[in-house]
Each structure stands twice: as C-alpha cells, then as structure tokens.
Amino acid sequence: MKLKPYRPSYGNYIHENILFNVLLQNVTILLVGYGSIVLNKIWRGIIFVVKWSSVSSKYFVLFVFAIVSFYIPTGKIEAALSTYEKRTNVWDVKTVGLNLRSGAGTVYPVIAQVSGGTDLVEYCPSGACGSTTAGGFEWIRNYYPDGSIGYYANAALGWAAWYNFTGGTTTFNYYYTSVAKTSRATPMYSSSCNNLSGVMKGLQSDYYMQSFDSELSASTCNPNAWRLQDHQAGSNSTGSFDSGYVNGWNLKAE
What's the rounded Cα separation, in Å, for the pair 252 and 179? Predict the structure, then answer.
C-alpha cells in the first residue's frame, strides 16, 4: 500500500513519525528460588519512522523493524519424551537403612549409607541394566545422593542389595515407583544429554507428576534427568500430557 504524505504549506520537507503499540500480554512462569510462578510476557512498543522528501517521492519510506527474540515458556508444551529412548530405573528406598558397598557382596566395604525414603538411580550408561547375585542377595549398582556433590554423579556410585532370595519371604530394600514430587521450584527441560537444557516451563515446589514410563525412570546419559509427565496441566495440543526431563536432585520419588 503506497503512503500519501501530508504536505503542509510552510515547508519543503516533512518528518512524519508513526508509533505502533504492541499489545502487552501476561503469562505465568516459574521464578526459580522464590517458589512462585510469575512472569510478564512483554513485547515492547516498536517505533516505525517514516520519512520522505518533496524532492523525490520515490524514496518515501524508511522502514525500521526491531525484533526482540527471547524464550517464553507457557503452560502448554509439546511432549519432549519418547518411548524408544534408553532409560534406567529410579528407586525408592523402603528399608530403614541401606548400605552402599564398593562391590556386589557383603565382603566389600561400606562406602555410604542412606535412610528410608532416599532415592537411588540405577547405573546403566549402556542402557543394558542388570543385577548381580552374591551372598544370598541380588545386587544393583546405583547412584546415591551425596550432599557434598549436589547432584547424582559417578563420584557417588555404590552397590546396594536389592532383595534377598534365601530364607523364605523375599524382602525388597528398594523398589520401583511411578510418582515424583518437586522438593523445590524447578524447570522442566526438553533435552537431557549431557546436561539438562531447553527450558520448557516452570514447576512450583510440592508439585506432583507421573512417570512417563511404566515406572519412574531417568535418562541413561544423565541420572539427574528424570522422565516425567504433567497430568495437572491437562492435555496439550497433541492430546497428550506435557512431558519432559526434570532434575532428580529437585525431586522426591514417592
């Protein structure tokens, strides 16, 4: 559309400024560290300056456009997880106390102890997880939480007796679970290897989520990347629930 400039009687040139105001729209997001989910989704007003001269009407428009590009998570996202990805188990300790040893068997020294309710992540970098039989117990190598590290890491790995298979009734020291609750405000991510990245949305503290898989699982490339789906947010544009990776250090398996 060609603009017809306004020509006053007192000058040989015109300066015409056109201001377009872009609607301000608010959305909610997590403010990590404050335990609330508040973000203002703001698109700034953009000024278009149109100048032209009576000397040459051919060059009558100078169009200046500025785009401010930044990520704005919303309450609805596309599913980030798939069923064919390699994964490993997240365990919930059921016994009052549990020893972690340097090897599979009671002959190996205890390197750490955890209490009931602690979360373990099975060590399974290849995706081919398994257990070892020794001394009347089935043993699994697991990541265990170490507060001095602040996340699940190779520096905190130990063998824990999964269950006994002698002496009558089988007793599991830790077991599968399918529910996790945030222990603090934390984001949901779209990528797990090797670091969590691609913030999808924020989750408040004490927020319950379901495991994406039949049991609560983590990515094999990152024991801190737990695979979860958000039923509380409702279904998304694909008709499924929001899914993504959440930092297991900020979660409690239940």
Answer: 9
Half-sphere exposure of 176 (CA within 13 A, CB side): 10
pLDDT digits (tens, 9 = 90+) for 38-95: 333 333 333 333 333 343 333 333 333 333 333 334 344 445 688 878 999 999 999 9
Q: How far is CA 9 from CA 53, 55, 60, in A?
A: 14, 15, 19
Let me know the angle formed at the C-alpha of 181 by 178 and 183, rounded to the nearest 5 degrees. 145
**Whether the Cβ atoms of residue 183 and residue 192 lie closer than 8 Å to each other:** no
Q: Rounded CA gap, 39 and 71, in Å?
A: 12
Lookup: tokens for 178? 């399918």
Report the candidate in 77, 117, 86 with the shortest Cα–Cα distance to residue 192. 86
Could you give the C-alpha distances from 61 to 49, 53, 58, in angstroms and in order? 8, 10, 8
Cis amide leading into 194 (omega within 30): yes
In whole angstroms, give the CA distance from residue 211 to residue 205: 17
Q: What is the percent of the chain where pLDDT is above 70?
A: 68
Q: Transcribe 106-162 into DSSP letters.
A: TTSPEEEEEETT-EEEE--TTS----EEETTEEEEEEE---TTT-S--TTSEEEEEE
